[in-house]
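Methods — Computational structure assignment.
A single polypeptide chain was analysed. Its primary sequence is given first, followed by the predicted tertiary structure written as structure tokens.
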Amino acid sequence: MVINLIILFSKNQDFVKKMKKFNVFILFGMVTLSFLFLSPSSAITVPVKDGGSSADTLLVGTTSFGYNLDPQNAWDSASFDIIHQVSEGLFAYDLGDPFLRIVPRLAADCGTWSEDHLEFTVTLRNKIAFHNGNPFDAAAVKASFDRLIHLIETGVLQTAELYEPLNEELVIRSVGIIDEFTIKFVLNYKFAPFVSLLCITSSMIIDASVMPDNDIISTNDTLIGTGPYKFMSKDGEKVKFEYYEDYYRGTPAVKKFYLIKFESSGAIETALLGGDIHMVPGNFYFNILSPWGNSDILTYEEPIVGSVITYIGMNNELINKTLRHAISLAIDYDYIINSIYRNLIVRMTSVIPPGITYHQPQNVSTHDVSKARQILIDAGLSKGLNENSVDSEWITIAESEDPIAHYNYTYNEGNWIREEIGIQAQYDLSLIGISVELTGVTWTEFLNKLFYYPYELNLYLIGWMPDYNDPSNYINPLFSITSMSNTAQVNDPWLQGKMMEGLNEFNETLRAHLYGDIQKYLAEDLMPWIFLGFDNGGTYHSSHVRDLQRNALGYFYVFPLTWYGENATWDDETYCNNGCMPIEDWPSEPIEKIPGYSILVMLSVATVNVVIIMRRRKKNDS
């Protein structure tokens, strides 16, 4: 019963000031305060009921309007829900394709690489204008990226690190104009996921002539783009969008829609049941609805595996590989997933989720206490216990003054999911003679430890969501010695070398093998974390709404919706075969689908499982 939103942490102003080198995002994830969400809405009286006369007006419920309407600086999903309707990039992911293949958007083709892969030339669509009438051309693209680079170099842009992988210099050296509708990117070094980088929100093309050169726009400023909808107005209750009549791709079924703000997810659910709204962005976890009910009013979409990973981090400086291996085997994954998470996650089979390029399932550790004990016995760490020792003997060692090991499990107080997992880990590890002390801290203290004092953490629950569809967007920030998001303090020379190799390799076959080797190494050899799960969510929407492009990235996009029997019409998508992922090299199976299940099991869920998504700011920002 959750909307998957990532919101910028900004409650503590002193903390925000200290976070100039970091971005902190909160994913309101798998489980939420069911009993609090049943309150009625006090946000707005919506204009029409489902099935009413205004069949061209779509009403979408949300709990947040986001924090930034500057596309180049936005980094939360609630802001994306607005920006993605209005603004566009040169390239985009086909959200209706389970492989999230790349398609040209404002680009007229897939672009052409130079032989050394340091120059990327793109032909642009012509006869396109921004919503204010200003022309879209090569000059507009150059001005947009010049502003982006300038804001990165001056330390203003929070998305700066996406363009500075592995603490290297900027990927983009310059952007040059070849002719009115041809642009050339010159790179500082080979960067294989460059086209994926051009798909992200901060690479969307803005009308730089109406944007401040040295600052970002606020949430209250007007948003101007080239996309299918015009940003009409925004207040504390709703955001209004209307179809852009001159949109080059065709006519959508939805001509007008509102994002309507509610105080809670329960209020959204009540509004959806009453026909006061038609849908919600992303995946939504309902409490009082069930997959078999309300079929005449609502349509249930079964869960899909998303791109968020959840894991228990282990301090790799303190916990050696032998102990990490034993710990990974001791954890009761079925209990955590089935009983604590209520199946709102599915078991993680790799660091890379199924919907992300080059996902390859691995032999991750499973619950096997006997095997975990044998590892400790073979390593001479078992304190005299052997394979015949019973549970009580191992627990006695764990509770003694001289356990096999003693670790803290740190969590933020009030988050019962984190606390329950800590209690379970405490019991599981006692069965292999390891003592775990639960350490509850305030939310601010928890974040402070993550970002400034990770060496004080031994075990902790955390998560990650990618910025674009490429495995490097998981591997590099989470395991590089240069990344502040590497809170597990992984320092592995082989892995570090493979990270840069993955960025530089353009041969898709070799790149797939490389990331396959990395995934295997992480899951079966290094074992830097306790691998828990991938997010797994379903949703409801009005039966009048069809053709939702549900996707692993969780992006919300109104344009292709079918509405009240009226079909949308637009240009056919052309997948890129040059500079983007060749179709024939994609995996044979799409995003994993999980059968529908009873939402009634969530009735006992009563709090929020907060997953921290960490980001590092520009390295020389001070």
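Note: Residues 303 and 538 are 4 Å apart (CA to CA).
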